[in-house]
Amino acid sequence: MKAPLIDFDFLYNLAANDTNYVYDVIKLYLDTMPSGIEKLEQLIRVDGGYEVIQKQAHFLKSSASVVKVRSMHDNLIEIEMLARQHRKMAEPATAKS
C-alpha cells in the first residue's frame, strides 16, 4: 500500500485538531508554495547563486515540514544541502579573487 500523497498528521497535532487553524495553514501553503517552487526552479535554471538557492529551499522546506506532501520535504532538504555544499566549496575560490 502506497503512502498517502499528503500527510496531515503533524499539522493536526500542531493545531490541536482546530480545523480553522488547519484551514488557514493549508490556504497559506497553497497561496505561497507554487510561486515559491517556481522561484526556486528559476534560481536553479538561471544560476541564482548557491546562497540564494539555499535560502529559498530553506524557506520552502519550513512550509513543507508542516504540510507534508510526499517527498517534497525530503527533496527540499536535499536541494538546500547541495546548495550549501556548493557554496562552501566556492567560498575559498571567491576569497582568493
Instruction: Outline the low-pLDDT stretches.
Output: none
The pLDDT mean sits at 88
Query: Which secondary-structure class do the elements indicate?
Result: mainly alpha
Number of helices, counting only DSSP H or I runs of 4 residues or more: 4
Assembly category: single chain
**How many distinct beta strands?**
2
Percent helix: over 70%
Q: What string, H for helix and E for strand, traces the elements in order?
A: EHHHEH
Shape: elongated
β-strand amount: under 5%
What gyration radius follows from the Cα positions, in whole Å?
16 Å
- What's the main sheet like? 2 strands, antiparallel
Describe the structure.
This protein is mainly alpha-helical and 97 residues long. The chain is 75% helix and 4% strand. The chain has helices at 9-14, 19-45, 50-64, 72-96; strands spanning 6-7, 68-69. Helix 3 (50-64) packs antiparallel against helix 4. The longest helix is centred in the first third of the chain and has 27 residues, at 19-45.
